[in-house]
Write a structure and sequence with these properties.
single chain; mainly alpha; 2 helices; about 85% helix; elongated
Length: about 110
């Protein structure tokens, strides 16, 4: 293998790593946007369904109260899942080994 072939291979490998990192960041951003929509929408949908139940069954404050509580429960569930996801991302970042030859190679 010539030096030029080796350089091209290294360049392709670096491009693949950069593309993988870019795709990972896009997936993380997409998931964060889904959580950002899920949390308020769960409360809104619960309130609307509760209001519809109130209007249909003529049980004025009960339907919207139950709907809001169900929506808040779903929002809290989404927040707990968001926190767990962020912790898993932090743990994955902490677990990545340092590059070879760096000062932080685990030796003291």
């Amino acid at each position: 293998m010539s030096v030029e072939e080796w350089r091209q291979k290294q360049y392709r490998d670096l491009r693949a790593i950069a593309d993988d990192e870019r795709n990972r960041m896009k997936r993380q951003a997409g998931k964060a946007h889904l959580y950002a929509l899920e949390i308020p929408m769960s409360v809104i949908v619960g309130a609307v369904l509760g209001k519809l139940a109130d209007d249909h069954f003529h049980i004025a404050p009960i339907g919207i109260t139950v709907g809001l509580l169900a929506g808040l429960g779903a929002a809290i569930n989404a927040i707990v899942r968001l926190i767990a996801w962020q912790k898993s991302l932090s743990a994955a970042d902490d677990a990545t080994p340092p590059p070879p030859g760096s000062d932080h190679d685990g030796t003291t």
